[in-house]
């Protein structure tokens, strides 16, 4: 009986050792995963910071390019939000047709936008259209005069963004062009809230975004 007791004690010690080893392996695995996540976040943060510098440089070059063509009043640069607002005489009221001066500004911006898409593989361009608060009383179907068919300010704003996108894309290949996305906000986001009918609200904003999802 004494020998049998010693045998069970040995088995118990062995099982305890196995459990301890398993627990140790689990702890090591968790620590490795945590370390990998921390490293990923550090690398991601560093990458985003570098990409922000790319955007800043592109904005500065774009401002200089527009200034050389006397087009600097058409664009307002927001470095914090990584966006450019084109709002000075961009559209006539109720129209999606871009004025000749604004068209020239978009064309001058094209190469800088391409530069961003090439330098930042996880970058996207959001082209956001906006309107003033003039209500659309009936559907507009005269494309030649107004540049689009629309029945409310949301479809009009999307048409404005679409027209801007056409000038930005130019001869871009499909892969890069697919990273330039259009959206319309109607009159929901006026820059001049005190005067929602202000012409400044008829604008297009180009937002430079970086996809940070793993």
Q: Calculate the mean pLDDT score and round it.
A: 84
- Across the major sheet, the strand order is 1-2-5-3-4
Seen as an oligomer or otherwise, the chain set is single chain
Please identify the structural class as seen in this structure. Answer: alpha+beta
- Global outline: elongated
User: What is the strand tally?
Assistant: 5
- What percent strand? 5-15%
> How is the biggest beta sheet arranged?
5 strands, mixed
What is the gyration radius calculated from CA atoms?
A: 28 Å
- Report the span from N to C terminus: 61 Å
* N-to-C SSE string, H for helix and E for strand: HEEHEHHHEE
Low-confidence stretches: none
The percent of residues in helical segments reads 40-55%
Number of helices: 5
Summarize the structure in words.
The protein is an alpha+beta fold and about 210 residues long. It has five helices and five strands.
Per-chain topology:
Blueprint: H1 2-68, E1 75-78, E2 83-86, H2 100-119, E3 123-129, H3 143-146, H4 153-169, H5 174-177, E4 180-184, E5 204-210
Parallel strand pairs: 3-4
Antiparallel strand pairs: 1-2, 2-5, 3-5
Helix pairs in contact: 1-2, 2-4
Short description:
The chain is of the alpha+beta class. The protein has helices at residues 2-68, 100-119, 143-146, 153-169, 174-177; strands at residues 75-78, 83-86, 123-129, 180-184, 204-210. Strands 1-2-5-3-4 form a five-stranded mixed sheet.
